[in-house]
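Example (one chain per record):
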Amino acid sequence: MAEAPAAPPIALGLDVGGSASRWALAGADGAVFAAGVVAPFSGAMIHSPAGRPHVEAALGELARAVRAAAPGCVLGAVWAGVTGYDAESGPALREAMTAALAAEARRITLLNDVELACRLRFQPGTGCLVYAGTGSIGVFVDASGQCHRVGGRGGLIGDEGSGYWVAKEALARLWRAEDERPGSAAAGALGCHLFAAIGGSRWDHTRRVLLDASRGEFAQLALAVARAADDADPAALAVLDEAGAALARLARIVVTRFGAMPVAVAGRAAGLHPRLWSALERALPAGVSVQRFEADFAAAAASRAASGPLPLLP
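Predicted structure:
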């Protein structure tokens, strides 16, 4: 009896951010036939005694999801964009991914998540991508394939304009106002919406969130700031104005260093509120065009992975 022909290889696209890891599978024709979400992780976690098990658990969850969606199929290509990925974390992360997915290491293209998004939007040397999600960063891939980054320094000292930053700045304003005028924090729309999201207006409610919430969970509080802006709260509007200007600064630095080019802005924080977008547009240099880049990066990566390697990888 003749053996059944082997299933054709499939391609996996993976977009790992601070809030979730999104995956998609595409066939040889580039059509996506399955997608899902597993636990988030970061490249930096792979070297941490506490973080590595988390990475391995998330990759195990991903492998099970892929096998369930495409039983018996072989991964012919993997394009993965991982937040926090860098040259130091690369070898260990590739090893963990290879083991979990049973894929050949040479089949895995592993990049920072925002560099992958930039490469999906622009050919090398033709445009800058600013990403605003849980964190924020500007990326430009030059004509030789070299990636240049601006910002992306984390919530403690950077990530201006991101969802995390918007939530942090809004809470800081509330509590500074409360110090000066006791009772004022809960009186306005910003306090109303933020304290409802936190679960209470006392300092211990805010402190618990600061201590216990993950970066992604904390960044979700930016949605409450957007609701306060809808109510014309002046503090919320001011935070969104500053966020838009901060994201424009990332693009402005890239344009200053590498010359005029179009700018694409991606990430859910970039679409947080029209006020943020207006401030971003106003703060860009004259003549620099900007557009929102709203795409399912995992699906786009899977489709492109099915057709061949990324161009000009250094």
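Caption: Residues 40 and 310 are 24 Å apart (CA to CA).
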